[in-house]
Write a structure and sequence with these properties.
With about 280 residues, the protein is mainly beta. It has helices at about 1-25, 45-50, and strands at about 50-55, 60, 65-70, 75, 80-85, 90, 95-100, 110, 120-130, 130-135, 140-150, 150-155, 160-165, 165-170, 175, 180-185, 185-190, 195-200, 205, 210, 215-220, 225, 230, 235-240, 245, 250, 255-260, 275. The strands form two sheets. The chain has an 18-stranded parallel sheet that branches. It is globular, with a radius of gyration of 32 Å. The termini are far apart.
């Protein structure tokens, strides 16, 4: 009996050592140093979508696709900065400036008569172009653009969306958008013509127009103008054509207040509806 107790004691004393050796061997399986650098877990933007750099002006785009500006670029007299001679384009100004250097230049970004449709232009500044900072064709999106001291700040054809843009010191119009455009969250200041002008059937929403030499916010017939502010403009604060709607707007310190149809006061006639506004 005593012999059994002694053997059991020896086994219990040796058991922790055996376990230690077993666990140590299980972890000692090869080098801890990695064989090579870890591969990146995310793809680059160019791997997701191939993009073409624009590194000098003038530049003409003739193929659909995505393009990006690589640095601040400067215009040439009598030439457009970037000419859009294709449809379905994505143009990232990449936070840089297209500078026309004065009135001898033409347009900063310009669609040709037949092309430049379905275009997204965004994220940068256009300044000092003699004609338009941006001149876009139908079905285009102009977003997060600063237009400074151009002939016309931003000019668009039919069925375009202009949003989150600032237009300052234009020689003529700040924003000139033709038929059935949508203009939202934009600011127009110190332009020598109208601040924001939307053609027939356009929607102008959440915009601010101040210190312009013409009408602050000008909507042609059947336009809808909502939640806008017009202050200290030399013409009417807000002008709405026949069949239009003006609602929840403020017009203050302009030469005239809010114009609806053939009326020069809040209320209007000729089918123009003006509600919840102050002038």
């Amino acid at each position: 009996m005593q012999e059994i107790i002694v053997k059991t004691k020896i086994i219990l004393e040796l058991l922790p050592i055996a376990l230690y050796i077993t666990v140590s061997n299980s972890f000692a399986q090869g080098s801890l140093s990695p064989s090579s650098a870890p591969s990146p877990l995310m793809k680059t933007l160019d791997q997701i979508e191939s993009r073409t750099p624009i590194s000098s002006l003038p530049y003409t785009i003739t193929e659909s696709g995505s393009y990006y500006v690589t640095t601040n670029l400067y215009g040439v007299a009598g030439e457009n900065g970037i000419t859009l001679d294709a449809n379905y384009l994505n143009i990232d100004l990449n936070g840089f400036t297209l500078d026309g250097l004065g009135n001898a230049s033409s347009n900063g970004v310009c669609s040709t008569e037949e092309y430049g449709r379905y275009v997204h232009i965004y994220n940068g500044t256009v300044c000092n172009w003699g004609e338009a900072g941006i001149k876009a064709s139908r079905y285009s999106l102009i977003e997060n653009i600063r237009s400074i001291a151009n002939g016309i700040g931003i000019e668009t054809s039919h069925n375009c969306l202009i949003k989150d843009c600032i237009v300052i010191d234009s020689t003529y119009e700040g924003i000139y958008a033709r038929f059935q455009n949508s203009i939202t969250r934009c600011t127009a200041r110190h332009n020598k013509g109208h601040g924001i002008r939307g053609g027939q059937g356009s929607t102008i929403n959440n915009c601010v127009s101040r210190h312009n030499s013409g009408i602050g916010i000008y909507g042609y017939s059947q336009s809808i103008i909502t939640d806008c502010v017009a202050r200290e403009n030399d013409g009417y604060g807000i002008y709405a054509g026949k069949g239009g709607t003006v609602s929840d707007c403020v017009s203050s310190y302009n030469t005239n207040g809010i114009y609806g149809g053939t009326s020069e006061s809040v209320g209007g006639n000729s089918g123009t509806l003006i509600t919840d506004c102050s002038a």
